[in-house]
Design brief:
The chain is of the alpha/beta class. It has two domains: 10-62, no CATH class; 68-293, Lysozyme-like (3-Layer(aba) Sandwich), CATH 3.40.80.10. The chain has nine helices and nine strands.
Length: 295
């Protein structure tokens, strides 16, 4: 990848964040000047072009800045990228978190674009604290697969459950969106995009009227495992209560609507499908269920 004056897009946003300048996604003359100043400081070739050497230096340096955090716990070594929403796009809180909700975006693979879309929409403070990147459904882009992004500072929250039986649950929960296109029909997404063959999951039995789904990737499942254990530790949430208990009792049916989950009676971990009959996130992929019951 080579970025230069005139380049646009998410890669430029990430470059500008790393440089500590306004992140508008446009590689203009001001961005070029910042790149050249950085190259001069680091003893690199001063040409204003962002190629492999400049990118590698930036990434190594930013591994120790506030834009990137490595989480250590007794369970895992988890990497979290901080990419916060504008301050008017979430509620600052803080509130104590007693529930963890698993969602998916029903969209593309880039977690940063998901956050950008939340920042630009007109729905107000809607989103989740975390977004987990995935593979492109087309099979041509794996760079975000398993990449975890935090877009709301710890203690804050945004609306992510819709109508439910407990306002308290809504304001005292952590949410994560897993980038995924949801159910499929004839190997295509709901917007008609052809799904790469290795990303098609056919369930043993239909879930909410669909047997074919866009699969969660191996990296997503593993990062989700590490994330769940970290959040359990960070927020003292018993993630084995709720969904995990139901899977052990009922298998895939555990992902269906649960009145106790809807009413907020059981603190722990749930999916959006447990509180809404009209949602599809998450779906009971077998290796996902195996991971959850192993926690």
């Amino acid at each position: 990848m080579l970025l230069r004056e005139g380049s646009r897009g998410q890669e430029v946003v990430e470059l500008q964040l790393a440089l500590g300048i306004t992140a508008d996604g446009v590689f203009d003359s001001g961005t070029k000047e910042s790149v050249m100043a950085y190259q001069q400081r680091k003893g690199l070739m001063v040409d204003g072009l962002v190629g492999a050497q400049t990118l590698a230096t930036l990434r190594e340096e930013n591994a120790t800045t506030d834009n990137f955090e490595k989480i250590y716990s007794p369970y895992q070594d988890l990497m979290v990228n901080k990419y916060f929403l504008p301050k008017n796009e979430y509620i600052h809180g803080p509130t104590n978190k007693e529930y963890l909700f698993l969602h998916h975006t029903a969209g593309w693979n880039n977690p940063y674009k998901t956050v950008d879309d939340w920042a630009k929409d007109d729905r107000g403070t809607i989103g989740t604290e975390f977004v987990l990147g995935g593979k492109s459904v087309k099979g041509n882009d794996d760079r975000y697969d398993g990449e975890l992004v935090q877009c709301i500072p710890e203690g804050g929250y945004a609306w992510h459950l819709g109508k439910n039986g407990s306002q308290y649950m809504h304001t005292h929960s952590v949410g994560i969106e897993v980038c995924n296109f949801s159910y499929a029909e004839n190997e295509r997404t709901y917007v008609g995009t052809k799904i790469a063959p290795d990303q098609i999951m056919t369930l043993p039995e239909s879930f909410r009227g669909h047997q074919q789904w866009h699969a969660y990737s191996d990296k997503q499942v593993e990062t989700l495992r590490q994330f769940i254990l970290w959040i359990a530790e960070r927020d003292s949430i018993d993630v084995r209560e709720g969904l995990v208990t139901e899977i052990k009792k009922h298998g895939a049916r555990a992902f269906e609507f649960n009145q106790d989950a809807y009413d907020g009676k059981i603190r722990g971990m749930w999916t959006h499908t447990n509180t809404r009959k009209d949602k599809f996130d998450l779906f009971p992929q077998p290796d996902l269920m195996d991971m959850l019951t192993s926690l």
